UniProtKB/TrEMBL annotation, chain A:
This is Ech hydrogenase subunit EchB. The keyword Membrane applies. Coiled coil: none annotated. Pfam families: NADHdh.
From TrEMBL, chain B:
The keyword Iron-sulfur applies. The keyword Ion transport does not apply. It comes from Methanofollis fontis. Keywords: 4Fe-4S, Iron, Iron-sulfur, Metal-binding, Ubiquinone. PANTHER family: FORMATE HYDROGENLYASE SUBUNIT 7-RELATED (PTHR42989:SF1), HYDROGENASE-4 COMPONENT I (PTHR42989). Its cofactor is [4Fe-4S] cluster. This is NADH:ubiquinone oxidoreductase. It holds the Pfam family Oxidored_q6. Residues 18-128 form the NADH:ubiquinone oxidoreductase-like 20kDa subunit domain. Belongs to the complex I 20 kDa subunit family. It comes from the Archaea.
Length: 286, 147
C-alpha cells in the first residue's frame, strides 16, 4: 500500500521537483558566468509556452513515440519509488530511451537522424555502468529491490566508492551535461541544430522536457541509494553532486562521441569492475 | 495565461549582413546585457523559435532560404528586422542582387533602426515584438474557438 502511495506522490511531485532543479541549474549557471540569469520558474514558463504553440507534426507516429517516452519515463520512476526491482527499473528506463530514438528516426530529417544515432551511442556508453550500479548495490545489500536497498543500514558508499564515481560519470551523460551532450547539443545550437529534438515542436517538445524532469529525479534517486543509511547526508550529497554536474557543464566544451564511449565504458571497466572485484574478493569471498 | 511573453525563443538569421548587426545581436546574449534573464534563448532551430531576428538586406540567393525558415516556424511567430539594411536595404538598396528589406519576402512586425543597431534598441524591438506575439496568440485562440 505504502509503495503505491509513494509511486503516486512521485508521479505528481517529480515534474515539479525536476522543473525546479532545472530552474536552479539555469540560475546557478548564469551566476557562474557572471550573469543575472532567468527566474527559477523559467523552465515551467518554457513548457507552458510550448503547450500554447501551434502543433507542427512531420509524421503522426512521432507524437505517439514521444508520448510513450513520457509514459515509460514516468513508469520507470514509479517503479523505482514504489520500491520495485532495480533491474526492471533499468529495463523500463532503457525502453523509454528506445522510444525517443524511434521518435527521432520517425521524423525524416538528417539532423534528427544524427541526433538519434548519437543518442544510441550515449545509450551504449552509459548502460553498462548503470547495470554495474545495480549489481554493486545487490552485492552489498543482498537485494535487487529498491525498497530493501533504501532501508538497508549498511553504509553502501563505503563498499562502493568506485561504482559511485562511475555512476557520476554516466550521470553527466544522462543529464545531457556539457562534455557529453552529443545528442541534443544543449548549448551549441548551430552544430546539430538541436539533435534528437530537431523535428519536435510545441506540445511534443514540452512532453520531452517533462520526461527529462522525471528522468532527473530518478537519477538523483539512484544517488540516494548509496547513502540510504543516513537520509540527511544523502540529500546533502545529492545537492553537491548536482552542483558538481553544473560546474562540469560550465567548464568543459562538448567532446566527440568517442570520448563519451571511452568515459562511459572506461568508468564501467576501471571504476565499476575493479570495485566489484575487490568487493567480491575481500567482502564476500571467504 | 500569457506564457509566450515570458519565454520567447529567438532564431537569428544573417541575410547578407556586414556582420555589424550580427555581433550586436549576439552582444545582447553576453553577460553585459544578458537577455536570458527575460527567458530569451537563442535557438538554431526554426521549429523551436517564436521570434525570427533577421539582419541585413535580402539578396536573390537567400530569398528562398528566408521564406523557408519563416514557413517552418509554428504559429504564433513574429519577425524583427534588425538594422537599416534589414528594414529597407540601406545603402545596398540599389544593388542589382539586393531585393530590399526583409518585408519584400516575408511580413515584418518590428523594424529596429540603426547602423549598426545598438543592443539597447534591439532589446527594445524584441520587447515590442513580444506585445505583437501576444496579440497574435489571442487572435489564434479566437480563430480556433470559431472553428
Amino acid at each position: 500500500m505504502m509503495s503505491i502511495l509513494n509511486a503516486l506522490v512521485y508521479l505528481i511531485l517529480a515534474p515539479v521537483l525536476g522543473g525546479l532543479v532545472a530552474g536552479i541549474d539555469r540560475k546557478i549557471t548564469a551566476r557562474m558566468q557572471g550573469r543575472v540569469g532567468p527566474p527559477i520558474l523559467q523552465p515551467f514558463y518554457d513548457v507552458a509556452k510550448l503547450f500554447e504553440k501551434e502543433d507542427v507534426t512531420v509524421t503522426p507516429s512521432q507524437n505517439y513515440y514521444i508520448l510513450s517516452y513520457l509514459v515509460f519515463m514516468a513508469v520507470t520512476g514509479a517503479l523505482f519509488f514504489a520500491g520495485g526491482d532495480m533491474l526492471l527499473v533499468i529495463f523500463a528506463f532503457t525502453l523509454a530511451h528506445v522510444f525517443i530514438v524511434l521518435g527521432a528516426y520517425a521524423a525524416y530529417s538528417p539532423y534528427s537522424y544524427l541526433g538519434a544515432e548519437r543518442e544510441l551511442i550515449a545509450l551504449m556508453a552509459y548502460e553498462p555502468m548503470i547495470i554495474l550500479t545495480a549489481v554493486g548495490l545487490y552485492l552489498v545489500t543482498g537485494s535487487f529491490y529498491v525498497s530493501d536497498i533504501a532501508a538497508s543500514t549498511v553504509p553502501v558508499i563505503l563498499y562502493l566508492p568506485g561504482v559511485f564515481l562511475g555512476f557520476l560519470t554516466v550521470l553527466t551523460i544522462k543529464l545531457r551535461k556539457s562534455p557529453f551532450d552529443i545528442s541534443t547539443s544543449h548549448h551549441a545550437h548551430q552544430e546539430l541544430v538541436k539533435g534528437l529534438t530537431t523535428e519536435f515542436s510545441g506540445a511534443t517538445l514540452g512532453k520531452i522536457e517533462i520526461a527529462h524532469w522525471y528522468e532527473t529525479v530518478v537519477m538523483l534517486g539512484i544517488v540516494y541509494l548509496f547513502f540510504g543509511f543516513n537520509p540527511l547526508l544523502a540529500i546533502i550529497v545529492i545537492a553537491l553532486v548536482y552542483l558538481l554536474e553544473i560546474f562540469i557543464d560550465n567548464t568543459f566544451s562538448r567532446m566527440k562521441w568517442e570520448m563519451t564511449m571511452k568515459s562511459g565504458w572506461g568508468a564501467a571497466a576501471i571504476l565499476g569492475f575493479l570495485n566489484l572485484a575487490v568487493l567480491y574478493y575481500f567482502y564476500l569471498g571467504v | 495565461m500569457a506564457y509566450l511573453k515570458k519565454s520567447p525563443w529567438l532564431l537569428h538569421y544573417d541575410a547578407s549582413s556586414c556582420n555589424g548587426c550580427d555581433i550586436e545581436v549576439l552582444a545582447c546574449l553576453t553577460p553585459l546585457y544578458d537577455v536570458e534573464r527575460f527567458g530569451i534563448i537563442n535557438t538554431g532551430n526554426p521549429k523551436h523559435a517564436d521570434v525570427l531576428v533577421i539582419t541585413g538586406g535580402i539578396n536573390e540567393l537567400n530569398r528562398q532560404v528566408v521564406r523557408n525558415i519563416y514557413n517552418q516556424m509554428p504559429e504564433p511567430r513574429v519577425v524583427v528586422a534588425v538594422g537599416i539594411c534589414a528594414s529597407s536595404g540601406g545603402v545596398f538598396r540599389e544593388c542589382y542582387n539586393i531585393a530590399g528589406g526583409v518585408d519584400q519576402v516575408i511580413p515584418v512586425d518590428v523594424y529596429v533602426p540603426g547602423c549598426a543597431a545598438r543592443p539597447e534598441s534591439i532589446i527594445d524591438g524584441i520587447v515590442q515584438a513580444l506585445g505583437i506575439l501576444e496579440e497574435k496568440r489571442t487572435k489564434m485562440k479566437e480563430q480556433e474557438a470559431q472553428r
